[in-house]
User: What shape does this take?
Amino acid sequence: MADARVYGILSAKGGVGKTTITANLGAILSKEFKKKVLAIDANIEVPNLHLYLDMLGLPSSLQNVIKDEVSIAHSTYTHKSGLAIVPGSFLEEGVDVTRLKNVVDLVKGLYDIILLDSHPNADKEARAVMEASDEIIIVTNPWIPIVTSCLLTIRLARDVGTPIKGVILNKVGRSDEEMSTREVEDSLGLPILAKIPVDINVYRGVEKRTPVVVEVPKSPASKEFRRLAKLFI
Ligand SMILES: Nc1ncnc2c1ncn2[C@@H]1O[C@H](COP(=O)(O)OP(=O)(O)OP(=O)(O)O)[C@@H](O)[C@H]1O
Ligand SMILES: [Mg+2]
Assistant: This one.
């Protein structure tokens, strides 16, 4: 089996939808497209991917793996969709994020696709995620301040040297005044991979700790996640 392609899911601002996208893209690629997918919660400071997947009380985490306390195999858990995850844990001291790449490289041979969720910044944590990734996906919403903040992520990606696959425009359709796809593309100079609508089912899915693609597979957002997933196979 060829090595997995590793995608870092990044944004400089919080709340844009990185974890939602990691959970839904991972779940749909596993469940419907039968890919072997691993999602790693590389949001070292505020990990919550496991909460979006109703996987609480897991005994070990990425932080334990980075600190060499357990193997990554012992920190990998499978969601009912078939998606494998390495969860994060809160309030861990002394985690050297620069070791993330070593950890990811250990399991590249076992999966088709690896998704790295991340902390919202353009700092050393984002750099570690970029260094561990083959390609970067930037998540944004169609509002000027958030789109502008993507320039920080783009600058860091160029500095690290990891190519950017494109931008996922999330929470689309909230206002007539929001930026158009064309405007976002022109401001960032990057292709838009998907336009995920603002969809109450996504929000409910997070509240119910089940990805919308599993809970409501025909919702507007699920349809767009399905289209997006095809770009990864
Ligand atoms: N397409 C959507 N439609 C409706 N609600 C959405 C959509 N995408 C995300 N949300 C909601 O927005 C909130 C933030 O999403 P999420 O946690 O995925 O963002 P994030 O980028 O991972 O945040 P952080 O940077 O803090 O980790 C959640 O409550 C989620 O339900
Ligand atoms: Mg998140």
